[in-house]
Amino acid sequence: MADAATDSSTKAATVSKSWGDIAEEAAESSSSPTPEPEMSALAIGEPKEPKTLEDPDDSSIETATGDTPYTSAKTFEDLNLSPELLKGLYVEMKFERPSKIQAISLPMILTPPYKDLVAQAHNGSGKTTCFVLGMLSRVDPALKAPQALCICPTRELAIQNMEVLLKMGKYTGITSEAAVPTGTDLPIYKRMPIMSQVVIGTPGTIKKWISAKKLGLRDLKILVFDEADHMLAEDGFKDDSLRIMKDIERSGARCQVVLFSATFDDTVKNFVSRVVKDRNEMFVKKEDLSLDAVKQYKVRCPDESAKISVIKDKILDLGQKLGQTIIFVRSRHSASMLHKSLAQLGYEVTTIQGALRQEDRDKIVKEFKDGLTQVLISTDLLARGFDQSQVNLVVNYDLPVKHDSPNEPDCEVYLHRVGRAGRFGRKVVNGRRIGVWIYYKGSCHALGNILELLFEKHSAGGAAFNLIYDDRDDAIMQKIERHFGKSVAEVPSWESDHDFEAALKEAGLL
Q1: Is 61 within 8 Å of 280 (Cβ atoms)?
Q2: What CATH number has the domain bearing residue 385?
Q3: Which of 149, 116, 155 is nearest to 37 (CA)?
Q4: How much is the pTM?
Q5: Is the Cα torsion angle 100, 81, 263, 396 positive or negative in sign?
Q6: By CB distance 3.0 to 4.6 Å, which of 59, 182, 254, 507 could disulfide with 295?
């Protein structure tokens, strides 16, 4: 594997081309402190006679496992987990049985010879549990050294994954540390070597810890890339990711590589095929990679001020009792403008984007997750992996476009954005004429299975409104519809309360 290390200035130039506002690590100097924040061989050969795991409940998932046989796990006990891990799953996570994605992918992660895994999973399908449980299961509690490493594109996602790990691993005694940028002044050379058994963090900080010889790699057993498509993309963190993998290879560690993402474009797939060898694969069939759990609408607005009126008078006023709302904008300027406009109209909203101080971003995310705030304006900083079960409404104030081709939609970002309202494990049960929401955090199906015998049930993750006001927006929306092979319904009038109420009823929210 070629050494692909880059210095900080090069990295900043690369990441700044993304609309996602996730380049906060580029501003770090080589002496940036990195204490943990407070928190309550890669070409894939063609597999020989690929075998498909049989799971009658999920024929849309295709797997290729080479010559290694696997059995889909129907219960967590089938995975031979430790009693302490089982207790964490049942008592803390309140799980009952593996989700479809977990039932298929976990045997691949946990069964010798621990082959690499490239896995695609829907937003909210329970993929975080897959790799967190995989990391905890691979750790030897008696060995006080880093054994599992998870790399994420943003500090928010890294901290969120750490929270899941702390909860799931509560009874195991396994130690962990977050490798994310912080605002303190402790130089890297002053910190003690990392002895925690699981490390979850962002690529810039992890790379610095390795370069400073603070993070040892020789005992590493599993390396996870969350949102792997972005971690290995040219305009993402590909150089840092390759450098970390090269360092692991040099250490002599026999390390399993696990890549999870909701999307993998052809460019990333081709790259992975040259880098990850002798892998298992799990992909959602392209025709099933959709957002059927989220009702999507387009709203034609005559001008920018009408877009603000739609958010204020229709979406926020009608949806104020329906849970939380995330409004996605394209740039920091748009975020500030929209925040100011809504605040002047008396609405309490919070805004998050990459220019904020890290401690302020952490506070905003925590308040939103705790339900203290109901409306969050965000750049694409939170488009990926942000898991909040109370989000029922997503608004695309600006449609996502590619930075270098602003007339072309970024369909993968669209998928990630709208997926914030379609988190796994939430079901709507229709009884008479009233929609009853059951929020069951994580991947627990048992309650849903019982109710399925009594009521008509269907998945419903919420609603997404795409605001369109000119021919360019209209052309971009049409391209998104063609990409997903799905026609997005139009709200007949941007001024009609009745039309918006009908849309929310169709989404199961009223």
Answers
A1: no
A2: 3.40.50.300
A3: 155
A4: 0.63
A5: positive
A6: 507
